[in-house]
Amino acid sequence: MIYLKDYLDPSYVIFLKEKDKKSALNKLVDCIASSPNIEDKEALRKAVFKREKIISTGIGLGIAIPHVKIKEVKKLTICIGISKEGINWAALDNKPVYSIFLIAGPAEQHELYLKILSKIILVLKKKERREKILKAEKPDEILELFKNL
Question: Would you give per-residue pLDDT tens digits along the chain (149 residues)?
């Protein structure tokens, strides 16, 4: 069984003040790049923006899940960004994004990558959980919401 808590760390949970998608993505990349699992921050940044150009990672319900798999990532790592005010992300439902889950995975870990991606979507479908994430004031409060998932 895959548990999201095994891939989450309070060091990679940030509260965003950024008002636009580009600034928010840059902030998330800067944050996640401090992980020892990320070998090349600029390669990650380039891949994240390239992926976002293909189609918006704003999936609706106030959620965006930018995700990439590249050889410069040693182990799957997730960074969570929370925007209390919302960010125009060109999401599928044309509504602002409040919760952003940046997933960086190794190029060869396709199965794990897909399982984590689908688990995040499944977990965030619950309106109550999304609301609790937005009410959280500290990273640990957010991670607590994922402890058994």
Answer: 889 999 999 999 999 999 999 999 999 999 999 999 999 999 999 999 999 999 999 999 999 999 999 999 999 999 999 999 999 999 999 999 999 999 999 999 989 999 999 999 999 999 999 999 999 999 999 999 988 88
The residue range of the domain holding 10 is 4-144
CA dihedral 30, 112, 120, 83 (to 10 degrees): 0
Q: Strands 13-16 and 77-87, how do they pair?
A: parallel
Whether the Cβ atoms of residue 74 and residue 43 lie closer than 8 Å to each other: no
149 within a domain of the structure (yes/no)? no
Q: List active site positions.
A: 67
Q: Assign residue 131 the CATH number of its domain.
A: 3.40.930.10
Residue 25 CB contacts under 8 Å (≥ 6 apart), including other chains: 48, 49, 52, 66, 102
